[in-house]
Amino acid sequence: MQPAVVVTGIGTVTSIGIGREPFWDSLLSGLCGIGDVESFDTSSYCVHRGAEVKDFRSEAFVSKLDRNCIGRASQFAIAAARLALADANLDMKTLDFERVGVTIGTTSGEPQMIERFDDAAVSGALKSVGPEFMRFYPCHVIAAHVASELDIEGVNVTIPTACAAGNYAIAHAFDVLRAGRVDLMLAGGSDSFSRITYTGFARLGAIAPEVCQPFDRNRKGMVPGEGAGILVLEPLERAVRRQARIYAEVVGYGLSCDAHHMTAAHPFGAARAMEKALSESRIEPEQVSYISAHGTGTPTNDRIETLAVKRVFKDAAYRTPISSIKSMLGHSMGAASAIEAAVCALAIFHGRVPPTINLEEPDPECDLDYVPNCARELDVNVAMNNAYAFGGNNASLILRKIEA
Amino acid sequence: MAMSADEIRDKIKRSIASITFIDPGKFDDFTSYEDDLAIDSLSILEIVVDVEYQFQIKVPEEELSAIRTIGDTVKTVQKYLCVEVV
């Protein structure tokens, strides 16, 4: 029999708090991390809002690697990994580092490094770009940097399936653990704020002018954000043996691709990922206590997601609370679903679910229970975490309470 | 659930009308969603979800893609209502 896999550590770097406790407190109080973009000049854009991590001190987390030679996404990932390991209360001396792995999801890799190159090219200083550029920007450096900072020598994978990448990374870690290839995994996602990403979403007309208001009738779009979320995953038996605090069990996942269009979601793909996740986990829709929505706040996403939930959950759709923390954090891209998976684990552990803030006027086309504006006490036995991405990549993850 | 084809057809037409705001008097069995009603994929999912909900059935995705007309929809609903009864 394959071992059960549990979450025993949580590390988050977000615009509303760094570290599990500050982040969770901010979420429950409905704190909003969205403000005017400060890291670059947005005067030539028609939008100016973003959810940047403003109080991040990389020197507090990165000690072995040279901070000037690793990008912001790698720095976030290292910070989240250190926070998760500390949260898991692991005695590092007892770990066999060859049997510890890292899987990180991302959308953009290290876009700020590419911007450095662009700036050099535009200013006529292309010759100043040395060969070291090759090791700065590719997506895969994120997981590699986490491993080399922390001396982790096992499986090492970066999964760039865009905004569903965090769930993909956790799913991969789940498989590797169940196959018995490792003892422990650090799994999650990381992305940094960048002109590249911001310009792309601005050109798509997807960015909201002021706030992110998922499922509200007057929602005007998403707001780009940044951050990282990393979970410590290990077999249940190992966690029990070392008397670890167990947040939740990862029970299963469902992945699907719309095979349709790069940015326009096809409505059935999302439903298919949820159905696969439920059937793999042997869980009926009625048993799901809470859904963490992809909930970007774009007019189309929220409508499609609502329909997909209705298709899968039928009557139970109306009884299952569903909330979007992107209303507070904006969209942290490849980190988003990893942070949201952490939220599902915390909701299970604490018996509370975070709200969807800025939900003032209900939309007749989005008529489910989105936990508007106030956190709620809720006995969460099973939580579903949904993520949808460019390329039609869909990923649903299911977590469950461990009975004491 | 014993339901005649006409009752099924009426329910389906009402569902489509409520989602597309098109006069149901203009629908017949040969009306094509794409060619005659020019409905986008999102509205088609809305109709699928509503029709499945109304009849409490679940149609597999691969069969949905074969549905082109309102007549196809009636036949598909009939097929799955029978399954439900059995």
Short précis:
The complex is a heterodimer of chains A (404) and B (86). Chain A has 404 residues and is α/β, with parallel strands linked by helices.
Radius of gyration of chain A: 20 Å
Instruction: State the helix count of chain A.
Output: 11
Give the tally of β-strands of chain B. Answer: 0
Write the element-wise H/E pattern of chain B from the N-terminal end onward.
HHHH
Provide the CATH top-level class of the largest domain in chain A: Alpha Beta
Radius of gyration of chain B: 12 Å
Strand content of chain A: 15-25%
CATH architecture of the largest domain in chain A: 3-Layer(aba) Sandwich
Largest sheet of chain B: none
CATH level-four homologous superfamily name of chain B: ACP-like
Q: State the domain count of chain A.
A: 2
Globally, the shape of chain A reads globular
Q: Uncertain spans of chain A, ≥5 residues at pLDDT below 50?
A: none
Low-pLDDT parts of chain B are none
Which key features would you list for this structure?
heterodimer; A: 404 residues; alpha/beta; Peroxisomal Thiolase, Chain A, domain 1; 2 domains; eleven-stranded mixed beta sheet; two-stranded antiparallel sheet; 11 helices; 15 strands; B: 86 residues; mainly alpha; Non-ribosomal Peptide Synthetase Peptidyl Carrier Protein, Chain A; 4 helices; 59% helix; 0% strand
